[in-house]
Amino acid sequence: MCDSSKQEQTLTSNDGNLNFWVDRWQANRIGFHRTFVSDLFKTHILPKLISSEEKKCVVFPLCGKTLDMKAVLDLGHRVIGIEGCKAGIEAFFNENNISYEIEKDENNQCEIYKGIECSVTIYSADVFTFNKSLPSVDYIWDRGGLVAINPSTREQYRDCLLRMMTPDQTRLFLVAINYNDPDFSGPPYVVNDDDVNHLFGSTCSSELVEVRDNTEEYRSREAARQINYIEERLHLIVRKQI
Ligand SMILES: C[S@@+](CC[C@H](N)C(=O)[O-])C[C@H]1O[C@@H](n2cnc3c(N)ncnc32)[C@H](O)[C@@H]1O
Asked: Which atom of ligand 1 is nearest to the CA of 130?
């Protein structure tokens, strides 16, 4: 099922950054992938979904094959993902035994992977050129998104997120990363609180929800890189009414 042609898998990114990720998927260098549902996701999103009687829609920009999506589906809610590498998308469906079909979207020049028996849609697209209008989005879970892209493209990426956000409704949970290591500069890139304020301060309210020391887990996933200290800083961001 998995298309191994690099030429076909490579989508154009405005700074060439996506090629880097396609190479990583092809070489199976996906240390960013967690084999469990993220703790912060379990703490801050799942309880909201469990207690909701309405079906909620959760968007995962730069989704990879994260099991956080599977956790949402298991609760009967809706998942929308955006991922530039088909290998990651197909791995998500195949590894979780979710049957799917693929639709072409000629206008948007992307393919749309849709679950047949469950409510998951993953767009095979470069997030920077993604312009599909989405249904009303309740939550955006950005773990490994903003911190993964080239820092020079952050404002463009921020604008992609803002387009998906309904004022006063969509809750963007942004997992920022902080570390101080002279031998390593990313990805993941450091996104500090000032960066978050600079990006979202004029259009959104934001609140630092939790900070977690992630050093041990990071070291166990990225064994080759013995980083001194790394923490995840979870921000809740809500777009203001204009
Ligand atoms: C650090 S990984 C995080 C994946 C996932 N969010 C997780 O928590 O496991 C970043 C992902 O973004 C994808 N990606 C990078 N640049 C992209 C772009 N411009 N458009 C779409 N996807 C992109 C990569 O292929 C990769 O799967």
From this structure: 20
